[in-house]
Amino acid sequence: MSAGQDPRSAGPGNGAVRGPAARRMLVGARLRDLRERSGLSRDQAGYAIRGSASKISRIELGRTSLARRDVADLLTLYGLPAGAEREELLRLAQEANERAWWHRYGELVPAWTHRFLDLEEAAREVRAYEPCQIPELLQTEDYTRACLAIRDGIREGDRRIEIDERAAVRRLRRRRFEGDPGRTLAAVLDEAALRRFVGGPELIRGQLGHLAALADAGRVELRIIPVGGRPLPLAHGFTILGFAGRALPDVVYLEFLTTALYLDKPADLAAYTAAWDRLCAAALPPDAGRALLAELIEPL
């Protein structure tokens, strides 16, 4: 949890946290706060629930399932009496073990992205930087399918169903985001990604038109780094997820070919926030970005 952040300010019942992973993180942060206030070590807490210090660490970081009995025993050990907060934490612990909305697609979605799908749903602010492609929440259906085919080497044939299922996950992500007007999305992308003819000119025309419509509507804060501009401070994409009510620390998500990283240490967050600010400074102003989109669409 970020420096100066009090887990009790999360207010479990404030509706700010959704998704199993986010609920596990919230319960874990509160358990850590209670343990530290009680002066107990992870070893002592682990012994009390027939576990180990490493198990307590995983619970506090929200990286394992939560057994109601373990949570109840820890709350008793830490001296939290019966009452509204105790019941709310037990309820959240139970809900944290429920299946997420994307579960039916779980076998086709890379395991390292499962936690991201939960956290993205809970985030109130998403900041995405993509140097090579359009951010996933801004993709059209056709662009999504073309990207999936290229990345996974999937073409027509027996595995076509995999494209359909994976495209469905991205489609649902977009709908869930668009259905919540309280959430914000900012994106920085390289002009080169807009000029890359993924799937052909007609597909790109539709994708660029979609971006222009989103920018004109003010639903997305879109910034474009022009070709030939300043050197980019980062060559790889990243996403910063921010949560309402200080319920959870911000998380930086980095996805690679076969794994992903989730960063929430203050130093990491500060570094990526600074990188985001430099990217925004290198990008065109919003009006100039919209003009560039129109310029790119016109000859297609």
Note down, in words, how this protein is organized:
The chain has 300 residues and is α/β, with parallel strands linked by helices. The chain has two domains: 7-95, lambda repressor-like DNA-binding domains (434 Repressor (Amino-terminal Domain)); 112-136 and 180-297, Endonuclease Chain A (Endonuclease, Chain A), CATH 3.30.870. It has helices at 20-38, 42-48, 53-60, 68-77, 84-95, 114-122, 141-152, 160-178, 191-195, 201-217, 266-282, 286-297, and strands at 125-130, 184-190, 220-225, 238-242, 251-255, 260-263. It has a six-stranded mixed β-sheet, sandwiched between helices. The longest helix has 19 residues, at 20-38. The radius of gyration is 21 Å and the shape is elongated. Mean pLDDT is 86; it is low at 1-16.
